Each structure stands twice: as C-alpha cells, then as structure tokens.
Amino acid sequence: MKCPICNTETKQIGLNTFINKKLKLMECPNCELIMLDLDSHKISQVEIDLFYRNTKYYVEKGLFLNLRKAFSRLRGQYYKAGAFLDQSLTLRDLNILELGCGRGEFLKELQRDNFCIGVDSNKHYYDLYYKGSLIDFYNLTIEGYVSRHDLLYDDLIILADVLEHLSNPVETLSKIHTKTSNRVKLYIKVPNCGDGVIMQKSLKEPHISHFTTNSILELLDKTGFKAISMQVNIAIFLLVEKKPKDLNTLLIT
Ligand SMILES: [Zn+2]
Hints:
By secondary structure, the protein is of the alpha/beta class. Helix 6 (142-148) packs parallel to helix 7 (169-179). The chain contains 10 helices and 11 strands. The chain has one domain (45-252): Rossmann fold, CATH 3.40.50.150. The structure holds zinc ion (ZN). Residues 3, 5-6, 8, 28, 30-31, 33 line the site of zinc ion.
C-alpha cells in the first residue's frame, strides 16, 4: 500500500490486532508513519464506527471513574494542555469544538469561559459524562460531524488523542481545512511513537496510525496546516493554524 500522507510505497513490519483481526502493520520509509493496512483486509468505515460506538473500552463507572478523574488531576494532564495553549491563546470567549471529546475533562475546564461543543461516537458518553453540563454534546463520529456541520464559527478545534484512531486522517483534516475560517486554530495531541516505550503502548491500543514528529508534521503540511507551537515528550502537543495561501493563489483571487 502507498503511504496516505506522502504517497511513498510502504513496507510491512509486522502484524497487529484491531477489531479482533490480525492486520498488516505498514511503515512508510519516507515520513515514518506506521499504520494498519485496512484496505487489503477490507475493513470498512462502518465496522470501525461500530467498534468505537459500542466499545466499553473507554467506559468506566463509579469507583473506577472517580479514581481515573483523581489520577488525571494528579498528573495535571488537562492543566498541562491548558498551560501549553495559554502560551499562544487566550482561552476566553472562544467557540471551542472538541472532536473525540471522550470523558470531557478538558472541555469541562474550558466551559466556564467559552462556548463548548463536544463530539464523540461512543453511545454511552452523554449519559455518563455530559448530562447537565453546559457542553453542547453530539453523539456522532468525527467524520459524520465534520461532513454535516458548519465549522466556520469555531475559533479552536481540539483533536486530542484522536488522529491515531481515524481511518483516513488526511481526508478528515482536509475537510476541516475547507470548512473552517482562516482564523481557526487546531490543538492536536498524539502519542509520541518516536519514543520506543510509547510505540509499544500505542501498538496495544486500538490505534490505526502511530505518529512521530516527522509524520504528524507531514500530515499537517499535506492538509494545508502548519504548526505554530510544538512540545514533545511522551506525547506530541501541537498548536496549528492554516498555511497562508501561496503567492499564485493570492494573485488569482
Ligand atoms: Zn509517508
């Protein structure tokens, strides 16, 4: 298969399990992207959507939920994200859209000062995490939301621990690019698979793509975005904006 980001011929480096099937794991020798070969296994988007919609994998209740919440706060994961964004953005009076918002810990911090929309395909999440909150929650897939909704008024779009789950991140980011205003910023976080330990962890998760700094920057470039700020540790944190149109386009318009 060809690399979806840079179109280079990929090579198989192993097998990995996804949706209870052993799939070929491919690596791009050019941009370093490692991804599952969904096409040759005829895995449809419908199957992937159903998996994420129904999975109990991310659903925790009662004691487990409370423990996880306490643990997140202890690690300061969400405050760290806020601090990273605060360097370049004032997180106040913004229209914020989080695609793949999960349990919504970050949005719940942001909802006090901003208008927040959350989108997640997991059917359990509204009742568990969003009922009674100020967050406008949509139980849809990311592709479903992006195709059907206007993104023109969004100031900040959050894709945290999300791109590695998408079957076609090039198509999704390209669509976000065409539907948003020029002032939009994207906050992106992916596991840093340039780190061997994180790569091993990522392979055990239901991830379709495994990104390094190289491959995520290539993905942004290919879909018309550029990073304006980046932090790399166990994860890659990026604040992203649209690339200016090239000179030829400017002359024509
Ligand atoms: Zn590539």
